[in-house]
Amino acid sequence: MQKYFVNESIEVNKTFEIESGDQHHIEKVMRNRSGNQIICVDLNHIQYLCTIEDVQAGIILPIEKLDINNELDIEVTLVYALPKGDKFEFVLQKACELGAHHIIPLSSKRCVVKLTKEKFNKKLPRYQKILKEASEQSGRNQIPSIEEVKTIKELKPYLKDYNLVAYEETAKQHQHGELFHTLQQIQTGNSLMIIVGCEGGFDESEIKELNEMGVKCCSLGNRILRSETAPLYLMSVIGYTRELVK
User: Fold this and answer.
1) Count of other CB atoms within 10 angstroms of residue 188
2) Residues 92 and 178 in one domain
3) Neighbour tally for 77: CB within 10 Å
4) CA 123 distance to own-chain centroid
5) What is the DSSP letter of 158?
6) Are 27 and 52 within one domain?
7) Maximum C-alpha span of the chain
8) Based on the structure, what is the number of domains in the chain?
9) In a shared domain, residues 31 and 51
10) Could you give the C-alpha distances from 124 to 2, 17, 127, 160, in angstroms and in order?
11) Which domain holds residue 13?
């Protein structure tokens, strides 16, 4: 059943008007008619089974509160150094599907792409649309937030209970334990930040700066992963350990 996010609090048996973009999708794309049912998620991340009262006007009637929570039991922030091409949008979509709660684009020394605040703000509506659609498709209870581009120095206020940076030199030294130990220690309700570099990885001085902030280096195994693969590897491992091996 198709899911839509609503920018208001929902009450059972109280109709509301869904936004025009979703109304168009409901009627023209999904070919729904009045009387069909959809799921809506409100500002409180609560899901409701709803009936389409008037498909052309976008009038929706919530009929039942659903006890569904498809979120990870820990809060995951992905910090991703800006890659080339459209890789950032790809990672946005997939990280959302895999359960990331917050996305922070990072500008590091080896980034080829340089986004000013103005350029980023022009792209922000597209990024938010990607996150919204990925959240609906994957059954999320919330849409991940996305911050403006940050530098490593600006990450300090965003640090979480646990903080890891993927670093290829750690893998080369066969020091594979940090990710495993962190995921063994983390508890329900805790927060985790994972930091991934761009195609060229991180400069040693950047790793030193992150280490001084309390961020620990971790290996992602013996193979060197592409920048767009590494965050999805991490998100998959996190999801597996939190949801499938308990």
Assistant:
1) 9
2) yes
3) 22
4) 17
5) G
6) yes
7) 62
8) 2
9) yes
10) 25, 25, 5, 24
11) 3-66
